Amino acid sequence: CVLCGRTDDCPEKYGEKRTYVAYNLTVHYYCLLMSSGIWQRGQEDEGVDGFLIADIRKEVNRAAKLKCNICKKKGASIGCVAPKCKRSYHFPCGIQKECIFQFMEDFRSYCWEHKPVQKFSDKESRGTSQCTICLDLVEQLPAYTVLKSPCCKNAWFHRECLQYQALSAGIFFFRCSVCNNKDKFQKEMLRMGIHIPEKDASWELEENAYQDLLQCYQHCDIKRCLCKKGRDYNEPDSKWEIKRCQCCGSRGTHLACSAMKSWEQNWECMECRSILAKSGNYSKQKKRSLATSEKTDGTTCLLEEPSPKCPRQSPGSQRSFLLQSPKIMCQNNLSPCSHRERPASNRVMMSLSPLMSNRNCSLRKKHLRKNRREVSNILKELKLQVNTKTTRLNINAENIWSSALKGFRQRNFNPTNTIEIKFTNCKNRSKTDTSAASKHHFFQLLMLHLQNSSLFEGSSAKNLSLDFQAVKENLYFEAGKMIAVSLVHGGPSPCFFSKTLFNCLVYGPENVKPALEDVADVDVARTIKMIKYANSLSSLQSAIHDCYEFLAAAGCLRPITSLCDKDMLVNDILIHHVIKRIISPLESFRQGLKTLGVLEKMQMHPDAFSSILCHKPERLSAETICDLFTIHSSSDVNKVEGADFWMGYLQDVESGESVVTLEDILLFTTGSISIPPIGFDPEPTIKFLHKRYPVGNRLLNCLELPITTTYDQFKNKMEFTIRNTLRVERE
């Protein structure tokens, strides 16, 4: 460049580097714009954008006599405009020394001592927040590299991020990324030295950038497409015409594949259906359509929308409930009556029955069990990715988080490898314990640590918290990754997700409405309650005045003209505090959960995964343990008598007539106190053998039981062995 003498070609920093062979001239555009002794005296098509070649050569000669106050070399064409300031410098040197160049009006330049600065009131909090462009951390300090939005009190940016955005958006689209203010925002950014080119946005200049929007989606996305000519085949006015989702238009189905009789019928894809279901609209549409449809197989009552006061039931669970209830059996043929056939008196009697709540609870538990069985099958499908190649993790049980983090971040760690656990601080453990019990114990400790860590907040149902240090170290991603690996590799599930957190992960934060229960901060909750329960306009305005700084920092200030405005204000605060505030940790956490395809399955089967992520494991029962174990018996053993002793013992343990618990039995056999979501591999078995005492083979998940002549002998041997074995292990 003839003005700065540098060969750098960096359009973002120095403007476009232009070479004019005819004039033997190369110049940076910004060096030319900011030079103090030159003006555009020509038309736009003359010289260099109106700068005449003769004027450029005069400016070069003038600058050749001036020494740069920064690099001490000749050619300093830019001078500080502050009165009595004699400093001159090259444009790149000025950038390096943090000078301010204003790309407006007279294109003024200010040296590092006289440059304009943004004003900050003493009351404003100092700390760290997110740059709303790159979402990285930014210090809330009056520095050259940091700029504050003039229109939003809680919006901070990196100077570099703003400059890149301005160059891309141009003068027509460059605005505050938080509130979309244009005039005030551009004026301040120009004052602080951000160059906003007078051009259209880069995405508007790209040729055929929106060409894809002119094409209709033509693909059948149904799981089992019936069309023999393929999913992309589309024949208008036939059963193979492709119908697009009426909500998003980005999914499709052949009419025949979704059993639609005409193109006029509405159809929603699974993603939109889940969003509609969340908002409550889909269920209403579904109820209307069922009411008008004709059912000839006598199952109308099983397909009806359940009452909003009753838990949602699957058809199978409702049918079994009908068969078990003697009050609603028809007297003529003892077959279940439909809901519409029952007398009104019977319906009233049922709704008032004291047994109804117990039945509802039982049905809810059956529904949870069904969902957990579904999750188990899904996780087993995901586990097919795991190969036989092993990755060993050295784990210190006393410092579970650090050692787990180190293991997951080691270069050779691959979530598709089989994981081996080596407990380095346990003298009595084998050097490398490959059993599922040891691995389950590791994941159990890890999930317990995550539940009580600073990454989450809340009492029992937890949401993500905002920990800047954790964001900086990418710990939210690692936490999501650990949970995904635990689920697929046979570990326990977290069981502490709040419904709000789960819905944010599955449906996206923009489709979730948080509640007051999601606020863990006592002071914030108190502020929301003051506003929510204000019973007059004056008390509402007083509450807002008391928490003015908090509302301003949250960007939730809004004009209050009536008492009903408080609902929208409360909603704004909840969305900011519970969702927007942790949007960066949430995105990192989502990325971690994508490991092994877990998040994708969560989004496809939300009800099933909610049962293990938002609900604690069901308390073990004798029936659960009995169903869990498969009994294998040798030919010379009375299998029926041995099984009777076993089931009788389980009943005694459940009723409290034993010194051991059902969890102790499971721990003795498998090394786990709960059933993991994926189930046990191999599946637990029981063998009746000629042994003195029972043996728990944790490598095979096999419980070897002694053959005895009486039940008392069987019970005494079980209790003696299990109690003493577990006591020694604990010691």
Automatic annotation (TrEMBL):
PROSITE patterns xref list: EPHD
Q: Which InterPro entries match?
A: EPHD (IPR034732), HECT_dom (IPR000569), Hect_E3_ubiquitin_ligase (IPR035983), PHD-type_Zinc_Finger (IPR051188), PHD_PHF7/G2E3-like (IPR059102), PHF7/G2E3_ePHD (IPR042013), Znf_FYVE_PHD (IPR011011), Znf_PHD (IPR001965)
Q: Which domain of life is it from?
A: Eukaryota
Question: Which part of the chain is the PHD-type domain?
Answer: 1-115
Molecular function terms, GO-annotated: ligase activity; ubiquitin-protein transferase activity; zinc ion binding
Q: Note the CDD domains from the entry.
A: ePHD_PHF7_G2E3_like, PHD_PHF7_G2E3_like
Q: Kindly state which keywords UniProt assigns to this record, in alphabetical order.
A: Ligase, Metal-binding, Nucleus, Transferase, Ubl conjugation pathway, Zinc, Zinc-finger
Q: Which GO terms describe its cellular component?
A: nucleus
Q: Where in the cell is it found?
A: Nucleus
Q: Please state the pathway this protein functions in, per its UniProt record.
A: Protein modification; protein ubiquitination
Quick one: signal sequence residues? none
Cross-referenced PANTHER family, in alphabetical order? G2_M PHASE-SPECIFIC E3 UBIQUITIN-PROTEIN LIGASE, PHD FINGER PROTEIN
* Record's protein name: G2E3 ligase
In which organism is this protein found? Cepphus grylle (Black guillemot)
- Mind giving the lineage of the organism this protein is from? Eukaryota, Metazoa, Chordata, Craniata, Vertebrata
